[in-house]
Specification:
single chain; alpha+beta; 6-stranded antiparallel barrel; 3 helices; 17 strands
Length: 248
């Protein structure tokens, strides 16, 4: 059996971003991809979730969506410092917040505004190129195996040599377990169906759009499947480069 090279997942040394351009562009990636953020207050074990909903380089300000659960607001009001951590395509993006955030409300939505961080830790966790699919070209997938009562149908959002990101309609969190290996993951690639075991590494239900996002890592792939994945990633890379040239 074939495992993706450990070098693909070898952590890279973290970088500290300090220029407003670098910081705002990386924060905007978190915002545009609607990547969930984890907020932890110093000396407290509870974790809260939020999202970046605004990044303004001109005013050096950001806005965070209402925390889940909301009782974290009392720590905000007390001025307690906290850490914000998000992941975008295998990159950890984190920063410390020691300033005051203002709690605001607009049309019934609560959010927090404050200064853009002056330092952001950027940590590339893996080397494997992750190719995103265009919305019109999303690939059908089935997640199945002995641990599931029935296959769960979804869409492939992006893929690398070591794993992929998936989208499912509705809240399927009750059927899945983080760290579990599901032995029959199937994706209808343009040149044929691939089947491989996968390990569930990430799971998030976005209530506003009634959609579950999942991240899986390929597990004990055969050489044939590995070549299928590499061929598909290369095809997406080539299309992305051609698209970029057309844009220019």
């Amino acid at each position: 059996m074939f495992n993706a090279s450990s070098a693909d997942d070898a952590p890279q040394p973290p970088k500290v971003l300090t220029t407003p351009l670098e910081i705002s562009s990386n924060l905007r990636q978190l915002q545009d991809s609607h990547d969930p953020l984890i907020i932890t207050f110093h000396e407290r074990s509870q974790r809260f979730q939020s999202y970046l909903i605004k990044v303004d380089r001109d005013s050096a300000s950001i806005a965070l969506d209402e925390m889940i659960p909301r009782d974290g607001e009392r720590f905000l009001l007390a001025g307690e410092p906290f850490r914000v951590e998000g992941f975008h395509e295998g990159v950890r993006i984190a920063w410390e917040c020691t300033g005051t955030l203002n709690i605001e409300e607009s049309e019934g939505d609560r959010f927090y505004t404050g200064e853009m961080p002056t330092e952001v830790v950027y940590h590339q966790r893996r080397n494997a190129f992750r190719a995103a699919l265009k919305l019109a070209q999303l690939v059908d997938v089935d997640l199945d195996g002995e641990k599931l009562k029935a296959p769960i149908k979804g869409k492939l959002l992006d893929i690398s040599a070591t794993g992929c990101k998936l989208r499912f309609d509705g809240d399927i969190g009750g059927n899945l377990q983080l760290g579990q290996v599901y032995d029959r993951f199937m994706a209808a690639l343009p040149f044929g169906k691939m089947t491989a075991p996968v390990e569930l590494r990430y799971l998030h239900f976005e209530e506003k759009i009634s959609t579950t996002f999942a991240g899986v890592r390929f597990h004990n792939m055969s050489g044939l499947v590995q070549r299928q994945v590499e061929r598909f990633v290369y095809q997406l890379q080539r299309e992305a480069r051609r698209f970029d040239k057309d844009d220019l």
